[in-house]
Amino acid sequence: MNGSIIDPRAAVIPVIGSRTAARSDVDAGSDVRKRNTILALSTTAFTLMFAVWLMFGVLGIPIRKEFGLTEVQFGWLTAIAILNGSIWRLAFGIWTDRFGGRLVLTLLVGATAIPAFLVSRSTSFNELLIYAFLVGMAGNAFSVGIAWNSAWFPKSRQGFALGVFGAGNVGASVTKFIGPLLIVLVPAAGWFGGIIPGGWRFVPFLYAIFCVVMAAAIWFLCPAHDHKPGAGRPLADLLRPLGQVRVWRFSLYYVVVFGAYVALSVWLPKYYVDVFGMPLTKAALLTALFIFPASLLRPLGGWLSDQFGARRIMYWVFGSMLLALLLLSAPSGHIVLYVPEKYAASGQIETMRFVMGPTLFTVLVFIVGCGMGIGKAAVYKYIPEYFPRDVGAVGGLVGLLGALGGFFLPPLFAYANKVTGIPQVTFFILLLITVASFAWLHWVVWRLLHNASPHLKNQFEMKKVGS
Question: Between 348 and 19, whose confidence is greater?
Fold first, then answer.
């Protein structure tokens, strides 16, 4: 019209551009849905696996009665599952980076159903130890989920995403809640002529069924195309970051915020029963007051670490834990002052009496749990920042050494209690480990500041600037 020529490309290019933009939006939305699906299912699976891993914290009480276990035997029963849930974490982290989390987590959850079922059929303490060791493989689900979610989520959201996944630690409280109830509700003889076992044996039987269902859900609902940051890389390249001292420092931090958490999760029910004379049901409920903040505050810890940095958060974590552990490690008793008989007929005065009741004890343990919940997320915020291509290997090693702390601490608690006869020695041990971690953290910060301002090396008082 009017002699003008319309270039057909002028009409086509905007259409093509809009289609490309629309396709990009669809792809972005699809990626978000896939990430959220992986986060939701991996967190659910981790919650279940954590419940399986630490079920002997509650089941150990009726098991101890049935098999007549000693204090040390009970300590080893609770620790042996933790051992197997620790030693394979590095391997599972590397396998996840190489083969994808969907495959590795499906196989792990499905395979855990077998020893969980066998625990329900145990007839002797030796059998129980073997099956408890095998069912402990469930604890390695943590390394799989950390590496899998790190591969899918952008750096800006990794702290929060890993915190949400890590909140699956709350699985430790699942058995605390349902275990005592199921033990009472399901008759000891079981149902259908014992095909479904009763009493404490029903709990691992039920978990075996849940594991099979969960494995199927992961395989069929998660995206088939997976992210595999370690695919094609030689093993030596994947393991190279493990030679850095920083990795081992993170591991010590994780012993405090996770290893000690695992140990207390299985030890506290017994502590409440033995020290305060509580029934198992109430002991399990109060233990859950420790487990909930130590698990559910992990997303908050991830968010805080994203906002303020992991190092600053760890300062607050260690500081609050030290104050609470200092009080928890104080044994019940009093000070005896020897005085002339004119002041006291017996020649002595008993003063500064201290006996901690269950209320104050629970409040202090709750504070420790809050520190652990936030601290676990802060430690794993460090890892993708310093080792973005090696989260599987580094996260696996940190998880391995942290969980090994959970393995060694219950027997250490048992032996220390046997030698001293003081149950509060449990918290004195944790106090020493926390002091060592805090000291290392502070030394690193001091060294960073010293390197950044070498000209202030020998100046204690700052000179005034100007007049």
Answer: 348
Q: What does the pLDDT read at residue 29?
A: 63
> Encoding tokens for residue 225?
């195309």
> What are the residue boundaries of the structural domains of the chain, listed by start?
28-452
Give the pLDDT confidence of 4-22 residue by residue, as tens digits.
444 544 444 455 555 444 4
Looking at domain 28-452, its CATH superfamily turns out to be MFS general substrate transporter like domains (1.20.1250.20)
What amino acid occupies position 95?
W
pLDDT digits (tens, 9 = 90+) for 389-432: 777 778 778 888 887 887 788 888 888 988 888 888 999 999 99
